[in-house]
C-alpha cells in the first residue's frame, strides 16, 4: 500500500487544505512546513547560522526524486512504465539537480495493490523488467552521481507469496508467519464470524476467511495482502535478510512503507468509533474507527532500529526513511528514536499538500527551508491530478469504495503518466493505451514545453531552486521565518557569512506589499531578483535589483531575492541552540512546527511539523 499520495488530500473535509496537485505529494521531514493561510497568525522561527559546519549527509542535502515506476517511462509500448524506461530518463533526473532516486515497489507482484503486494521480495516483476535491467539502471544512476533508495514493504506480503501458502498449510516455521485467528463463532447459515471489528485501510473487514486452514487471516490492506506476524521473530529475521540482499546489490537506502501498521495488539479487542471521524465516513471506512489496537503500537518502534554500524560499516552512508502518519508531533518524533537507539533518519509522510497554481511558491518553501526533501515525479513541472471516471478507476481503495465514493479514496489521479512532450501519450509510451490515461493537459503541460519556452516555466524555477539548495547558505545558513500579513503569506531568510537569500510567498488572492526590514534583520535595502514564480506579477526581471522596503507580490506568487552584506554590517549572532515552536492559528486548523537543533553536529536535524485536527492522516 502506499498511502501517501492521496489520503490527506482527498478525504479532508474540515481542512481548508485541498488537494491541488496530485503530482505534488510533497515531502518533508527534515524540515517541514505546512500551513494553511487563511487568517493565520504566526510566531517567528529564528535559528542562527551554523558556526561549525560539518558536511551534510547525502540524504540531508540532496533532493530525493520519487519515481512511481508504472508511470514514469514505458520502454516497450505495453502502456506500463518499466526499468528500461526509467534508465532512459536518468539524464533528465540528474539534470534537474536531484541527488537520489526513490523507486516505488518494483518487486514481483500480482499487482492487486500495484506492487505493494509482493510475492517475491528479492526479484523484479516482469512488467518492470529483469534483475539485469535493475542492475543496469543502478549502474546508470551511480554513473550520474545519483543514489538509489528502494521502497520496502515490511507489513505484509502478497497472498501469492510462498510463505503464505506454507502458512496456510501450517508448515513448520511458517505456521505463524501471518496473523491467524479462529472464527469468533458461526452464524445461522454456518458462515464464520470475524474475530473482531477491525477494518482495513482500504475499507471493509480486515479479516479474510481461509477455507483450507479454517481460520481468518488479518490484512491491514487488501485481502491479497496478508499481514506478516511480527510477533514472530523469524519474520523480522527474514525481512532483515531481504534488506541485506538489496544493500548487497548496492542500494543506498530504504523508504519503509506503512511501518506503524506492523504490530497489532495481541488481545484482539474491538476498536472504538473515532469521536473525531470525518462526518461523511461510514462504518466500513478505516477513518470511522480509532485504531488504538492496530496502528502505531510501541512495538513498531522497538523493532526497527537503524543499525548505524551496519548501515555505514563499509564506509557507505545509507539512509532509512520511515513512512509514518501518526497524527501528532510527539508521536512522529518517536520515529527518530534517540541518539543511542536511532530508528529512522527521518520519518516521512505526504501531509504537505500543495495548492492549485502554486507549485512554485510551495517548491520554494519546501526545498529551501532547512531539511531533507523529496520531489514526487512531475512536481517539477507542476503536473496536476487527473480526473478519472469510475470506469477508469483501478486503485483498490477507489474500487472498494464504489462508483459514488471512489473519488474520496482513489490514488489513481496522482499516478497518471509523466508528461514528457507533445507526442502521443505525451511521450510516455508508444502503445495504443496506457495503464492510466494521460492527463489531457499534457498538450500544454509537459517537460518539453517547459524546457523550450523562451519565457519562464515551473521546470526552470525548480532547477533554480535546486541550485540555491546546493549553496553553503542553504546548508549552514541562519533561518528567520515569519507568517506575513496576518497569515496571507510566508517569508524566510537564510544567511551565511554575510550572503543570503530571502523567499517571500503570497498564498492568497490579494496583493501583498512587504517591507522586508520590518520583519527581518540584516537584509540590505536593495537585493537582486534571483527567481520568481512563473508569470510573476508585477513583472520583474531576474537579475535586477529592487528595493526591499516595498516588495509587491500579487496573489499566489512568490519571489526569491539574494543579497550580500558587507563585512562591517555583519553582527555576531548569538549562538543559542534551542527548541523553537511555531504556531499558526487559522480558522479551521492549528498547526505546530517544531524545529529541534542538534547540539552535537551543529545543524538543524529534526524539524518536523504537525497538523492538528487532521483525522485523515492515516
Ligand atoms: Ca513497459
Ligand atoms: Ca501488521
UniProtKB/TrEMBL annotation:
> So which domain of life are we looking at?
Eukaryota
Q: What enzyme category does the UniProt record give?
A: hydrolase
Which EC number(s) are documented for this chain?
Answer: 3.2.1.20
Glycosyl hydrolase family 13 catalytic domain ranges (all copies):
66-415
> What is the reaction catalyzed?
Hydrolysis of terminal, non-reducing (1->4)-linked alpha-D-glucose residues with release of alpha-D-glucose
Per UniProt, which keywords does this protein have?
A: Glycoprotein, Glycosidase, Hydrolase
Q: Name one GO biological process term.
A: carbohydrate metabolic process
> Secretion signal: which residues?
none
Q: Supply the InterPro entries for this chain.
A: GH, GH13_cat_dom, O16G_dom_2
Q: Name one GO molecular function term.
A: alpha-1,4-glucosidase activity
List, alphabetically, the SMART domains matched. Aamy (SM00642)
The family assignment reads: Belongs to the glycosyl hydrolase 13 family.
Per its UniProt record, what PANTHER family does this chain match? ALPHA-AMYLASE FAMILY MEMBER, NEUTRAL AND BASIC AMINO ACID TRANSPORT PROTEIN RBAT
Instruction: Tell me what this protein is called.
Output: alpha-glucosidase
High-level lineage: Eukaryota, Metazoa, Ecdysozoa, Arthropoda, Hexapoda
Amino acid at each position: 500500500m502506499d498511502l501517501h499520495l492521496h489520503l490527506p488530500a482527498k478525504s479532508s473535509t474540515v481542512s481548508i487544505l485541498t488537494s491541488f496537485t496530485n503530482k505534488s505529494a510533497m515531502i518533508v521531514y527534515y524540515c517541514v512546513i505546512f500551513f494553511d493561510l487563511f487568517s493565520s497568525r504566526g510566531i517567528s522561527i529564528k535559528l542562527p547560522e551554523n558556526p561549525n559546519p560539518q558536511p551534510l549527509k547525502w540524504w540531508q542535502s540532496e533532493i530525493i526524486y520519487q519515481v512511481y515506476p508504472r508511470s514514469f517511462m514505458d520502454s516497450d509500448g505495453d502502456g506500463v512504465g518499466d526499468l528500461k524506461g526509467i534508465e532512459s530518463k536518468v539524464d533528465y533526473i540528474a539534470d534537474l539537480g536531484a541527488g537520489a532516486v526513490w523507486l516505488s515497489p518494483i518487486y514481483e507482484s500480482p499487482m492487486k495493490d500495484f506492487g505493494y503486494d509482493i510475492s517475491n521480495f528479492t526479484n523484479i516483476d516482469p512488467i518492470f523488467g529483469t534483475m539485469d535491467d535493475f542492475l543496469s539502471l543502478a549502474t546508470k544512476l551511480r554513473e550520474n552521481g545519483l543514489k538509489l533508495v528502494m521502497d520496502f514493504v515490511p507489513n505484509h506480503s502478497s497472498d501469492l507469496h510462498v510463505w503464505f501458502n506454507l502458512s496456510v498449510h501450517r508448515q513448520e516455521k511458517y505456521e505463524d508467519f501471518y496473523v491467524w485467528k479462529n472464527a469468533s463463532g458461526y452464524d445461522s447459515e454456518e458462515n464464520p464470524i470475524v474475530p473482531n471489528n477491525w477494518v482495513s485501510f482500504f475499507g471493509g473487514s480486515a479479516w479474510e476467511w481461509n477455507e483450507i486452514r479454517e481460520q481468518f487471516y488479518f490484512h491491514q490492506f487488501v485481502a491479497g495482502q496478508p499481514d506478516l506476524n511480527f510477533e514472530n521473530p523469524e519474520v523480522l529475521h527474514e525481512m532483515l535478510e531481504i534488506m541485506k540482499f538489496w544493500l548487497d546489490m548496492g542500494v543506498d537506502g530504504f523508504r519503509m512503507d506503512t511501518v506503524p501498521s506492523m504490530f497489532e495488539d495481541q488481545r484482539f479487542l474491538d476498536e472504538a468509533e473515532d469521536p473525531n471521524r470525518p462526518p461523511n465516513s461510514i462504518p466500513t471506512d478505516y477513518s470511522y474507527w480509532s485504531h488504538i489496537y492496530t496502528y502505531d503500537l510501541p512495538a513498531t518502534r522497538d523493532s526497527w532500529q537503524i543499525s548505524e554500524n551496519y548501515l555505514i560499516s563499509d564506509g557507505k552512508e545509507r539512509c532509512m526513511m520511515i513512512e509514518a502518519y501518526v497524527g501528532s508531533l510527539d508521536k512522529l518524533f518517536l520515529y527518530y528514536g534517540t541518539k543511542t537507539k536511532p530508528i529512522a533518519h527521518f520519518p516521512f509522510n505526504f501531509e504537505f499538500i500543495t495548492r492549485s497554481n502554486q507549485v512554485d511558491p510551495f517548491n520554494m518553501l519546501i526545498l529551501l527551508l532547512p531539511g531533507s526533501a523529496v520531489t514526487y515525479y512531475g512536481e517539477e513541472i507542476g503536473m496536476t491530478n487527473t480526473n478519472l471516471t469510475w470506469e477508469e478507476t483501478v486503485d483498490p481503495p477507489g474500487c472498494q469504495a464504489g462508483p459514488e465514493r471512489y473519488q474520496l479514496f482513489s490514488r489513481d489521479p496522482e499516478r497518471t503518466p509523466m508528461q514528457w512532450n507533445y507526442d502521443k501519450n505525451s511521450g510516455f509510451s508508444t502503445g495504443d493505451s496506457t495503464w492510466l490515461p494521460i492527463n489531457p493537459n499534457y498538450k500544454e503541460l509537459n517537460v518539453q514545453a517547459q524546457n523550450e519556452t523562451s519565457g519562464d516555466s515551473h521546470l526552470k524555477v525548480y532547477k533554480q531552486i535546486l541550485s540555491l539548495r546546493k549553496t553553503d547558505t542553504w546548508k549552514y545558513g541562519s533561518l528567520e521565518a515569519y507568517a506575513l500579513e496576518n497569515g496571507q503569506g510566508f517569508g524566510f531568510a537564510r544567511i551565511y557569512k554575510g550572503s543570503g537569500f530571502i523567499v517571500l510567498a503570497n498564498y492568497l488572492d490579494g496583493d501583498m506589499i512587504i517591507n522586508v526590514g520590518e520583519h527581518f534583520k540584516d537584509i540590505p535595502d536593495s537585493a537582486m531578483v534571483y527567481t520568481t514564480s512563473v508569470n510573476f506579477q508585477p513583472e520583474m526581471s531576474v537579475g535586477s535589483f529592487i528595493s526591499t522596503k516595498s516588495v509587491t507580490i500579487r496573489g499566489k506568487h512568490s519571489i526569491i531575492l539574494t543579497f550580500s552584506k558587507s563585512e562591517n554590517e555583519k553582527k555576531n549572532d548569538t549562538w543559542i541552540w534551542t527548541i523553537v515552536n511555531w504556531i499558526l492559528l487559522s480558522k479551521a486548523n492549528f498547526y505546530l512546527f517544531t524545529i529541534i537543533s542538534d547540539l552535537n553536529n551543529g545543524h538543524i536535524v529534526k524539524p518536523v511539523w504537525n497538523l492538528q485536527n487532521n483525522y485523515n492522516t492515516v
